[in-house]
């Protein structure tokens, strides 16, 4: 079996490879872990995230399933009841919805419905977000639909390092986790320290750039954009702190509160539509917690209240550097 | 503009059993080549069946009496629970009347290593699985989310989203197979053979998840028995709206065997389910069983069958009552006399009285229990909102308690009020 070479503890690699290495380690460490999904075996998944795993761990642990998302999640729930830790791949964000019933009425609620008797440690990996120039249903950001459902945890890493250890942490979580993967960042490279302890709590936010005049919070695919926004704002004399939220349920409000109490301003950016999005919840809670520190209302920037548009129009739909910078300026205008 | 009155002739609804009964106007129904397996006729006389008869050769008078006793107790419990709902003691009750043989016969076929997934009307199955009757009612009382522990009873909780439990059963069965594979690869001894028995109904058979379950079960040779109780009515919609063909014939389309059984014949149900569970355990699954039965009562206590089905249909099925049939078998074949039935009634009366007291004894837990179970691991949002809940509850003055607001945390009280 292709074991990890621990003598080489740090490597520079893509998020795609980091996810692959993270799942490889989870499969190695725990025989109860298994992967399920469409095309994840011989093909390695349409994004090749599971490439090579079927060959190394066997078809009984890396299962090419029949084509049915409700069947994938529903049987994963059953396997979890038998003591397994299934990791399901949904091929694209927009194809999660055939499994929506199983995720929201069964997976999310099973622990509560059984009064705590039936834990369902299932991880559902969903390549998420847009700007990949694709066809309909391939570019969506469904996180708010899941965040509204008690019983689920939701994370979205933005770096190869986080992807590597967070996937392992989520697989060992006793709760079900929606693991959103920022598909347009799959080929983003970064340092991955394979020996870094993976005991860190994955359900926390991280300050990824310090600043003292405005807190810009975002997650997944927009984190690199937010870093560029902070750089551009700095050239304009504005000091922007960037927080990578990482965990979308629960949300690490303590980190956000501490940041806003220092900066006095907040912008929330996400690809998902603004209306009813996670930005609304963050704005409400931060307004409650930081009312006397705020210099301006929390500003939100995100998708419009439209179905995700055809690829030729998407660059005007998803917030980019300029639109986020515009929101930053709105916050400073008060 | 005045609306045009509807002058079109009234069309016969081909799915309205009340309108079409006896008219031959049902949609074309493909008569199945599958015979309905029956070991007792409607008068409780034995029928020959060379394939399935041997599966109940061991059944003696004690076994039949025991089957009858379970069916009788389930019916009496069902009647009491319907009454309790009318008295406002139970929030809702789905009666099982008429389906006792399908449930008791099938539940008797599974063993200690097998796992059962019920739908929500399988009260006789739950009793067979050893759950005390009064405990079983906490969910329908609205006092608990579920009434028994799957980890102890090897019986999953009730599922009210129709068909949602069927893929779980398949996944569980895939896990049984995976256990054997992992043991084999590790050079360990094989775990005991086991199968999964999952219940659903004719209405749920239409759900897409049930279809996907069949596909997955076939793909992975899952040791699962799909047990569909076709009670002819999905609330108000007759079976002819769900399917043109007997449901068991669908199994062939997935590549496994389906068997139709007279669901009001406890011996036939026991025989067919024993066979099916053995097939599944020994790696020849999955298997589908369609038990043809009839819901003699309402869908739930919120339902009114007089609005959608004819009394002659109910009367026809009442003559096929599984209890009457089993009683006739006991009378004719085993010469069981009236004393047995009189004693059983007395014993059941006492049990019902005791059970009723047990049901009425309990109350709901505090809402705070729900904060404990929503996640398995600690969750900051839940803990924050649990505190809101506590603060709000504590903001009320209780009798005899000295809870002056001055002595409490004013800020948190305000926060709670806002929450």
Automatic annotation (TrEMBL), chain A:
InterPro entries per UniProt: THDP-binding, Transketo_C/PFOR_II, Transketolase-like_Pyr-bd, Transketolase_C
EC code: 1.2.4.4
Sections of the chain in a coiled coil: none
Record-annotated Transketolase-like pyrimidine-binding domain positions: 13-188
Recorded superkingdom: Bacteria
One annotated GO biological process: response to nutrient
GO MF assignments: branched-chain 2-oxo acid dehydrogenase activity; magnesium ion binding
Cofactor list: thiamine diphosphate
Entry keywords, A to Z: Oxidoreductase
Pfam families cross-referenced by the UniProt entry: Transket_pyr, Transketolase_C
PANTHER family per record: 2-OXOISOVALERATE DEHYDROGENASE SUBUNIT BETA, MITOCHONDRIAL, 2-OXOISOVALERATE DEHYDROGENASE SUBUNIT BETA-RELATED
Name the record gives this protein: 3-methyl-2-oxobutanoate dehydrogenase (2-methylpropanoyl-transferring)
UniProtKB/TrEMBL annotation, chain B:
EC number: 1.2.4.4
Entry-linked Pfam families: E1_dh (PF00676)
Molecular-function annotations in GO: branched-chain 2-oxo acid dehydrogenase activity; magnesium ion binding
Organism domain of life: Bacteria
Cofactor(s) for this UniProt protein: thiamine diphosphate
Polar residues: compositionally biased ranges: 1-10
Keyword tags: Oxidoreductase, Pyruvate, Thiamine pyrophosphate
One of the GO BP terms on file: branched-chain amino acid catabolic process
EC category name: oxidoreductase
Chemical reaction(s) catalysed: N(6)-[(R)-lipoyl]-L-lysyl-[protein] + 3-methyl-2-oxobutanoate + H(+) = N(6)-[(R)-S(8)-2-methylpropanoyldihydrolipoyl]-L-lysyl-[protein] + CO2
Region (Disordered), start-end ranges: 1-25, 399-419
SUPFAM superfamilies: Thiamin diphosphate-binding fold (THDP-binding)
Dehydrogenase E1 component domain ranges (all copies): 69-355
Segments of skewed composition (Basic and acidic residues): 408-419
Similarity annotation: Belongs to the BCKDHA family.
PANTHER family cross-referenced by the UniProt entry: 2-OXOISOVALERATE DEHYDROGENASE SUBUNIT ALPHA, MITOCHONDRIAL
Function, as annotated: The branched-chain alpha-keto dehydrogenase complex catalyzes the overall conversion of alpha-keto acids to acyl-CoA and CO(2). It contains multiple copies of three enzymatic components: branched-chain alpha-keto acid decarboxylase (E1), lipoamide acyltransferase (E2) and lipoamide dehydrogenase (E3).
Name of protein: 2-oxoisovalerate dehydrogenase subunit alpha
Lineage: Bacteria, Bacillati, Actinomycetota, Actinomycetes, Micrococcales
């Amino acid at each position: 079996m292709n074991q990890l070479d621990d003598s080489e503890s740090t490597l520079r690699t893509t998020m795609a490879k980091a996810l692959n290495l993270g799942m490889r380690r989870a499969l190695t460490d725990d025989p109860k872990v298994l992967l399920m999904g469409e095309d994840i075996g011989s093909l390695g998944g349409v994004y090749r995230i599971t490439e090579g795993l079927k060959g190394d761990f066997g078809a009984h642990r890396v299962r090419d399933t029949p084509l049915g998302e409700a069947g994938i999640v529903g049987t994963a729930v059953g396997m979890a009841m038998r003591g397994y830790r299934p990791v399901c791949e949904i091929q694209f964000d927009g194809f999660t919805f055939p499994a929506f019933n199983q995720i929201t009425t069964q997976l999310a609620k099973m622990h509560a419905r059984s009064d705590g008797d039936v834990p369902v440690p299932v991880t559902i990996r969903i390549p998420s977000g847009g700007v990949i120039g694709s066809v309909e249903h391939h570019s969506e950001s469904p996180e708010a639909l899941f965040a509204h459902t008690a019983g689920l945890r939701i994370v979205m890493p933005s770096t190869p390092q986080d992807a590597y250890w967070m996937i392992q942490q989520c697989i060992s979580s006793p709760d079900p986790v929606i693991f959103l993967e920022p598909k347009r960042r799959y080929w983003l490279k970064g340092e991955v320290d394979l020996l870094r302890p993976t005991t860190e709590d994955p359900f926390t936010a991280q300050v990824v750039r310090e600043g003292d005049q405005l807190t810009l919070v975002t997650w997944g695919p927009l984190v690199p954009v937010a870093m560029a926004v902070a750089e551009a704002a700095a050239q304009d004399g504005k000091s922007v702190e960037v927080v990578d939220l990482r965990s979308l349920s629960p949300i690490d409000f303590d980190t956000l509160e501490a940041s806003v109490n220092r900066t006095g301003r907040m912008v929330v950016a996400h690809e998902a539509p603004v209306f009813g999005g996670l930005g609304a919840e963050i704005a409400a809670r931060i307004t409650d917690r930081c009312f006397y520190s705020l210099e301006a209302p929390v500003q939100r920037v995100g998708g419009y209240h439209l179905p995700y548009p055809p690829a030729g129009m998407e660059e005007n739909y998803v917030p980019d550097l300029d639109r986020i910078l515009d929101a930053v300026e709105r916050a400073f205008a008060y | 503009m005045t609306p045009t009155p509807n002058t079109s002739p009234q069309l016969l609804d081909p799915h309205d059993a009340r309108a079409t009964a006896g008219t031959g106007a049902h949609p074309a129904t493909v008569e199945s080549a599958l015979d309905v397996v029956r070991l007792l006729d409607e008068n409780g006389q034995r029928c020959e069946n060379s394939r399935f008869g041997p599966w109940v050769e061991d059944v003696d008078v004690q076994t039949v009496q025991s089957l009858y006793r379970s069916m009788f107790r389930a019916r009496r419990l069902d009647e009491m629970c319907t009454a309790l709902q009318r008295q406002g003691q139970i929030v809702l009750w789905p009666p099982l009347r008429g389906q006792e043989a399908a449930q008791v016969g099938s539940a008797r076929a599974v063993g200690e290593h097998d796992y059962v997934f019920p739908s929500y009307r399988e009260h006789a199955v739950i009793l067979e699985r050893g759950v005390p009757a009064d405990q079983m009612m906490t969910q329908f009382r609205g006092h608990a989310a579920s009434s028994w522990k799957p980890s102890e009873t090897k019986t999953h909780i009730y599922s009210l989203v129709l068909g949602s439990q069927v893929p779980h059963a398949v996944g569980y069965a895939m896990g049984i197979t995976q256990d054997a594979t992992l043991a084999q690869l590790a050079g360990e001894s094989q775990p005991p053979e086991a199968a999964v028995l999952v219940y659903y109904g004719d209405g749920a058979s239409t759900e897409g998840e049930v279809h996907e379950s069949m596909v997955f079960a076939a793909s992975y040779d899952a040791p699962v028995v799909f047990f569909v109780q076709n009670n002819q009515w999905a609330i108000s919609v007759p079976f002819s709206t769900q399917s043109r063909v007997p449901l068991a014939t669908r199994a062939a389309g997935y590549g496994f065997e389906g068997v139709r059984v007279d669901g009001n014949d406890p011996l036939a149900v026991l025989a067919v389910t024993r066979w099916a569970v053995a097939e599944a355990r020994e790696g020849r699954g999955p298997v589908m069983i369609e038990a043809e039965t009839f819901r003699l009562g309402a869908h739930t206590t919120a339902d009114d069958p007089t609005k959608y089905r004819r009394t002659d249909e109910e009367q026809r099925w009442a003559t096929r009552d599984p209890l009457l049939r089993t009683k006739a078998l006991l009378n004719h074949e085993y010469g069981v006399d009236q004393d047995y039935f009189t004693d059983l009634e007395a014993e059941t009366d006492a049990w019902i009285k005791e059970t009723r007291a047990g049901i009425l004894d309990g109350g709901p837990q505090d809402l705070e229990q729900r904060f404990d179970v929503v996640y398995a691991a600690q969750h900051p949002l839940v803990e924050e909102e649990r505190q809101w809940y506590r603060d709000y509850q504590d903001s009320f003055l209780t009798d005899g308690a000295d809870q002056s607001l001055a002595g409490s945390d004013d800020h948190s009280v305000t926060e709670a009020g806002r929450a």
